[in-house]
Amino acid sequence: MAFRLYxxxxxxxxxxxxxxxxxxxxxxxxxxxxxxxTVLTADxxxxxxxxxxLEKGALHNNAFLAGGAIGANGxxxxxxxxxxxxxxxxxxxxxxxxxxxxxxxPGVDNEIPVILPVDGQPADDPVISDIHFSxxxxxxxxxxxxxxxxxxxxxxxxxxxxxxxxxxxxLVPQSGDLKDKKADFPAGLYVSPYIPAALDGExxxxxxxxxxxxxxxxxxxxxxxxxxxxxxPMVYSQKLTCEVAGIWKSNFDKxxxxxxxxxxxxxxxxxxxxxxxxxxxxxxxRLLVNFQLEGRKGESELALTxxxxxxxxxxxxxxxxxxxxxxxxxxxxxETAQTGRKLFEANCAxxxxxxxxxxxxxPGLQGLFSSPRLPDSDRPTSEVAVRGQIVDxxxxxxxxxxxxxxxxxxxxxxxKSL
Length: 418
Fold this sequence. Notes:
By secondary structure, the protein is mainly β. It has 3 domains: 1-237, Immunoglobulins (Immunoglobulin-like, Sandwich); 246-333, Beta Barrel (Lipocalin), CATH 2.40.128; 340-416, Cytochrome c-like domain (Cytochrome Bc1 Complex, Chain D, domain 2, Orthogonal Bundle). It is 10% helix and 41% strand. The protein has 4 helices and 27 strands. The strands form 6 sheets. The protein has an 8-stranded antiparallel β-sheet, with no helix packed on it. The longest helix has 13 residues, at 11-23.
């Protein structure tokens, strides 16, 4: 794969690019609303590389806006400017890509389960080559790349993902976009829209490029230097708990999330399917399920069995016109949210009382935000001052630079409640 950097200055393009910059609006939801997840595989591993792209609105409407990278631990976390409907797309070499319609709750971290099937025919995967970054002005550039597909059924997903700014851009054929997005797209040169950023000093390894065809095959995910970012998947080391709450895969290749919204209550949902779970009741190691499938009511009784790190639910389902075996294999435990209180206990409680003003090692923090000035530093009380104290430390307090910005926000919200 080749890489070339072009320097072209076009006044008209500069004006268009600046309009694009000024047209971008960052709402208050940005950096407070997230979509995150751990990418697992159907063969029980953790994906260690790849890309995630999100389109605003309905799935497959191709209005790509946000994106990011899958880390070496299989995790992704992408800030969004708003909640509502989004189309989630996950890509990793050697696996079939994952599309999912999601409903994003604003102001929180939305955890989404992602399970990638193994790609049994990688020989027909589309391929990216000859990535070019073209500088159009000091604040605008464009990307071009060559796309080929052995079986000639390319879809509309030719994407450039800026993992540093969490942006995604759809590239279109140089000859023009196709109106029918279900048609086979041509092999050849694809171009991005004008990208409102300075190319000078840009680390091209922060850019990821993906292509998918109509059979959900995606080839190698490459960076801006044309290099594959593939890392072998890892064995999933999480010890599975012997409980219903978690992520499950059924013998019908459907993915479910079972949760415990309150003590004694069990709830479930199916991803990418037409089954609706109406009611779930757990009695010791038995799970009773009432559901609807395409408008028909059904029921099932499943037994929870646990051996070493293998957790299963097994039983039979009954519908009016048929019945059969239903088997669920647990893939992942339920997510445990790191609330502000838990973050405080893990990082702050060794030195500070939460429900007292007495000194421990540092001052007690009860009523912190109702006091006009902060203890010790005597600075006027504000979120900015507290955030600075946490990040930079002060006097005898060490800095806590390892905390992510959203974790600091959660701690501050907890301190406000004291």
